[in-house]
Q: What sequence folds into this?
C-alpha cells in the first residue's frame, strides 16, 4: 500500500487590493445586511434598505472629561430645581418644569411646523437671562437665522449662531466657547468625518447624536436636537435615536391651522401626558395659556352634531368641540371618515349607538372631526362622540352650554373616568351650565366650583340610552 502524501502548496499571499465593502442598512431600524432586501427582516419595513459604505465602528470619542467612576447614590448631588427655565410656560411644562442640566431633548415635527422658531425663541429667552447658548444650524446660513431672529425680536450677545455640519468642529467650538446650552438644528444634516456615509443616513445620525449627547452629558450641558420626520410621521433615523435621548417631543399641528401642539412622547424627567399649545403668529410662536377658549372660539351655535367634550391632557383639562355629519349612504358600503380620533374607536362607538342606543345609524355615511387640529385619545371623550353622532342623526342640537364626558363600554354602559373635578371646574370657568358625566363620578365628587359646590347642573348617567333621554 502506498501512501500518497499530499504536499500542500502554501497559499499565495493575496495581492488583491482592499475593496470598499458596502453594506445595506435599514433606514428605519438600523438593521444591516450584506445584500439588498426588499423588506427589512427586523422591522418589516418595505424598501428601507439603502447601500452604505461599510466602516469600522469607532466608539468612545470623548472630548470632555467627566467622572464616571461608580459612586454610592447617597453621595451624588442633584437637585430637582436644578432646571433652566425658558420662561415659555408651555415649553417648560412639557419638559417637566424646565430644562434639566445635561439632558438631551429631541424635537421632531413636519417641515415648516415651527421647530426652529420655537427653539430660537426659547434659547433667546435663556440668553437674555445671561445663559450662553450655541445654536448650530446645519440648514440655514447665519444670515438667514439672523433674519428670522429679527422677525422674532431676538437680540442677545449670549446667543451664538454657528452654521456647521461637522460634528468634530461643533465639539471643538463647544470646547472653546463653553456654552451652557447647545442646539443642533437638525441632526440629519450633521456628519462625522469618521464615517463615509452621507449625512442623514442611519449610521451618521446614530454616531453623531451619540457622540454629541455623550459629550454634552460629560459637561452637564443640555442639548436640543431637531429631528426630521419621515412620511409616516416618526422621527427619521433609527429608533435608537429615541432611546439615546432623555426626552422626545413632537411638535404638531395641521397645515392651514395656526395652532401648534407640543407633545412629550418620552420624558425621563416629567410626565408624558403634558401638552403645550402655541399659536403661530407673524412674529413667532405665542403661548396659548387657555387653550379651551381658543378651541371653542368659532363654535357654531345650535348646530346638530356639535358637542363639547373634555379631554385631560397631562394635568390640564382641555375643552374641545367634536363635530359630526351622518348622511344616508347613497350607494354601496357606508363610508366613515374620521379626523383627530382613532378610526376604530369611532367604528366601535357607532356599533354601540346602533345596538344600545336604538338608532339605525350603521347604514349611514359618517364624518367626524375634532376641531382645531388637535388629536384626542382619552377614553373620556367616548360619550361625547356618541352624543355628537346621535345629535346629527336625529338633527337635534345638543344645548350649547352643555359639556359631555365619560367612557363607554360595549354593552352601552357609561363608565367612570379619572379627574372629573378639574374638568368640571374648567367647564365652569368657560361659562358652561350643564355637565353630563358618569354617575359613578357624580357620587364621588367633592371639591368643585369656587365655593365647594358647582353652579353647573351635574347630570350623572349610567348608560348611553340614559344619556340620550337626557339630551334629546
Ligand atoms: P420653521 O421654524 O422654519 O419650521 P421648521 O424648523 O419646523 O421646519 O417655521 C417656518 C414656518 O413658520 C414658516 O412656514 C413660516 C412660519 N413663521 C411664521 O408664521 N411666523 C414667524 O414669525 C416665523 C419665524 C415663521
Ligand atoms: Mg427648521
A:
Amino acid at each position: 500500500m502506498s501512501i500518497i502524501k499530499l504536499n500542500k502548496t502554501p497559499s499565495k499571499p493575496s495581492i488583491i487590493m482592499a475593496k470598499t465593502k458596502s453594506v445595506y442598512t435599514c433606514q428605519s431600524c438600523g438593521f444591516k445586511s450584506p445584500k439588498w432586501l426588499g423588506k427589512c427582516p427586523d422591522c418589516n419595513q418595505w424598501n428601507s434598505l439603502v447601500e452604505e459604505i461599510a466602516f469600522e465602528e469607532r466608539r468612545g470619542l470623548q472630548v470632555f472629561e467627566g467622572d464616571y467612576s461608580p459612586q454610592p447614590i447617597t453621595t451624588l448631588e442633584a437637585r430637582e430645581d436644578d432646571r433652566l427655565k425658558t420662561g415659555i410656560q408651555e415649553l417648560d411644562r412639557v419638559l417637566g418644569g424646565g430644562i434639566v442640566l445635561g439632558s438631551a431633548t429631541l424635537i421632531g415635527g413636519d417641515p415648516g411646523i415651527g421647530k426652529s422658531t420655537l427653539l430660537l425663541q426659547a434659547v433667546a429667552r435663556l440668553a437674555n437671562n445671561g445663559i450662553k447658548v450655541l445654536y448650530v444650524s446645519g440648514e440655514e446660513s447665519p444670515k438667514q437665522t439672523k433674519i428670522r431672529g429679527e422677525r422674532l425680536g431676538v437680540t442677545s450677545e449670549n446667543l451664538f449662531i454657528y452654521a456647521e455640519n461637522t460634528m468634530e468642529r461643533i465639539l471643538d467650538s463647544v470646547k472653546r466657547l463653553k456654552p451652557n446650552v447647545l442646539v443642533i438644528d437638525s441632526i440629519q444634516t450633521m456628519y462625522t468625518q469618521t464615517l463615509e456615509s452621507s449625512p442623514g443616513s442611519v449610521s451618521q445620525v446614530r454616531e453623531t447624536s451619540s457622540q454629541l449627547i455623550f459629550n454634552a452629558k460629560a459637561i452637564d450641558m443640555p442639548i436640543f436636537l431637531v429631528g426630521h420626520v419621515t412620511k409616516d410621521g416618526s422621527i427619521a433615523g433609527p429608533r435608537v435615536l429615541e432611546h439615546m435621548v432623555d426626552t422626545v417631543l413632537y411638535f404638531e399641528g395641521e397645515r392651514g391651522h395656526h395652532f401648534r401642539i407640543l407633545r412629550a412622547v418620552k420624558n425621563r424627567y416629567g410626565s408624558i401626558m403634558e401638552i403645550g399649545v402655541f399659536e403661530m403668529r407673524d412674529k413667532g410662536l405665542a403661548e396659548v395659556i387657555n387653550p379651551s377658549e381658543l378651541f371653542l372660539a368659532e363654535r357654531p351655535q345650535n348646530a346638530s352634531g356639535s358637542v363639547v367634550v373634555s379631554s385631560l391632557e397631562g394635568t390640564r383639562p382641555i375643552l374641545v368641540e367634536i363635530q359630526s355629519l351622518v348622511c344616508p349612504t347613497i350607494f354601496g358600503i357606508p363610508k366613515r371618515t374620521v379626523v383627530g380620533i382613532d378610526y376604530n374607536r369611532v367604528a366601535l362607538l357607532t356599533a354601540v349607538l346602533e345596538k344600545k342606543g336604538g338608532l339605525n345609524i350603521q347604514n349611514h355615511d359618517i364624518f367626524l372631526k375634532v376641531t382645531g387640529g388637535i388629536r384626542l385619545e382619552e377614553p373620556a371623550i367616548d360619550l361625547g362622540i356618541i352624543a355628537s353622532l346621535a345629535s346629527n342623526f336625529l338633527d337635534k342640537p345638543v344645548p350649547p352650554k352643555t359639556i359631555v364626558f365619560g367612557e363607554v363600554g360595549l354593552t352601552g354602559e357609561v363608565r367612570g373616568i379619572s379627574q372629573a373635578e378639574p374638568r368640571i371646574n374648567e367647564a365652569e370657568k368657560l361659562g358652561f351650565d350643564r355637565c353630563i358625566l358618569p354617575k359613578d363620578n357624580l357620587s364621588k365628587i367633592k371639591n368643585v366650583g369656587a365655593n365647594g359646590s358647582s353652579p353647573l347642573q351635574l347630570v350623572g348617567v349610567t348608560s348611553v340610552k340614559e344619556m340620550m333621554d337626557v339630551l334629546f
Remarks:
- The pocket of magnesium ion (ligand 2) is lined by residues 115-116, 139, 185 (CB under 6 Å).
